[in-house]
């Protein structure tokens, strides 16, 4: 097992390099980089002044020809060169990529271009929102899916199984962001009730509250976002649990256990449960990471929750490349480690599985 883990860890290196290289290449062809962002801002502020005067046209032509930026109208070429040096664009692309990889290997992500704060501090600041959403939605999803999937397997083909399948499929088909808007209209000061807050993870006076009031306030703010996220989160796991239990119930060892006089509960939870839950439990790390990083952008925006999803979107929009590449690197690394952990969970749950002895 040690050799298998070592091989997987070593394979993560070229995988990460490939992810970062492809992203870096795409970024090179994307218009509107940070230098252009600053130029556009300056031109917007000084547009009126540059539009007048006879010498403006000559200065515009000289600036455009010397810098290569179509938006650098009337700006000093030396200023443009200084901007490029500030953002690191005075170096060739290959050198910039090599320097970025070297810094990332030491977990040195630099500072945000436009926020004047280190990327690590920025991620730490946004982390509580994403952790809250990812952790609770995973627990809620598994807490609903596993009992419901077991019940559906035991009642396969019954009225309960049919109507719950219909509910699960309909819930899965409804977009989470659309349901979030409906919740706001109904319960967050829209056209009807004003029961829940619409902004933030906690109230402004949260630090002055007692611990019981802090806990209540925290879940009070999370109620609507979690309902919107969990609407479709449990559909896949529910059906997977049901099918896994059905496959195990139909096997010969279950018939043998029943023939020995074991109670149905003992057969179900003493024999079937462990084998049926193998794929469900082993997939928990991946499910948590997926919910932690991918499912909250629109929900964070709708409910004004300043988390990693919103941070990533704003960084791409503003071309804040240190934040973009740092979050991509961290998310990719954690995703690869979660995949390895999921594979190891198989061997911990069922010792009969051994990746070292599998045939290649």
Automatic annotation (TrEMBL):
This is Microcin C ABC transporter permease YejB. InterPro entries: MetI-like, MetI-like_sf. The keyword Transferase does not apply. The keyword Signal does not apply. The chain crosses the membrane at residues 9-30, 131-150, 162-188, 218-241, 276-303, 323-349. Belongs to the binding-protein-dependent transport system permease family. Its main location: membrane. It comes from Aureimonas fodinaquatilis. GO terms for biological process: microcin transport; transmembrane transport. It is found in: Cell inner membrane; Cell membrane. Keywords: Cell inner membrane, Cell membrane, Membrane, Transmembrane, Transmembrane helix, Transport.
């Amino acid at each position: 097992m040690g050799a298998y883990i070592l091989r997987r860890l070593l394979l993560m290196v070229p995988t990460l390099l490939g992810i970062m290289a492809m992203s870096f290449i795409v970024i090179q062809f994307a218009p509107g980089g940070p230098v252009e962002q600053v130029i556009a801002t300056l031109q917007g502020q000084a547009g009126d002044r540059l539009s007048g005067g006879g010498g403006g046209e000559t200065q515009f032509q000289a600036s455009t020809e010397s810098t290569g930026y179509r938006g650098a109208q009337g700006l000093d070429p030396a200023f443009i060169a200084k901007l490029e040096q500030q953002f690191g664009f005075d170096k060739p692309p290959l050198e910039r990529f090599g320097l970025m990889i070297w810094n990332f290997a030491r977990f040195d992500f630099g500072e945000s271009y436009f926020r004047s704060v280190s990327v690590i501090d920025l991620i730490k600041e946004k982390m509580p929102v994403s952790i809250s959403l990812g952790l609770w939605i995973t627990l809620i999803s598994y807490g609903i899916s596993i009992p419901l999937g077991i019940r559906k397997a035991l009642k396969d083909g019954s009225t309960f199984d049919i109507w719950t399948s219909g509910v699960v499929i309909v819930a899965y088909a409804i977009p989470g962001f659309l349901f979030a808007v409906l919740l706001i209209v109904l319960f967050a000061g829209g056209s009807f009730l004003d029961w829940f807050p619409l902004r933030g993870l906690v109230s402004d006076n949260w630090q002055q509250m007692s611990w019981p009031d802090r806990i209540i306030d925290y879940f009070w703010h999370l109620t609507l976002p979690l309902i919107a996220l969990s609407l479709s989160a449990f559909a896949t796991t529910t059906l997977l649990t049901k099918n896994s239990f059905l496959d195990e119930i139909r096997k010969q060892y279950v018939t043998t256990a029943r023939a020995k006089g074991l109670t149905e509960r003992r057969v179900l939870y003493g024999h079937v449960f462990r084998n049926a839950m193998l794929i469900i439990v082993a997939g928990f790390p991946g499910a948590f990471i997926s919910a932690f990083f991918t499912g909250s952008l629109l929900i964070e925006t709708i409910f004004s929750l300043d988390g990693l999803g919103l941070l990533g979107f704003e960084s791409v929009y503003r071309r804040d490349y240190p934040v973009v590449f740092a979050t991509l690197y961290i998310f990719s690394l954690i995703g690869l480690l979660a995949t390895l952990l999921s594979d190891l969970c198989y061997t911990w749950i069922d010792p009969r599985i051994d990746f070292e002895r599998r045939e290649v």
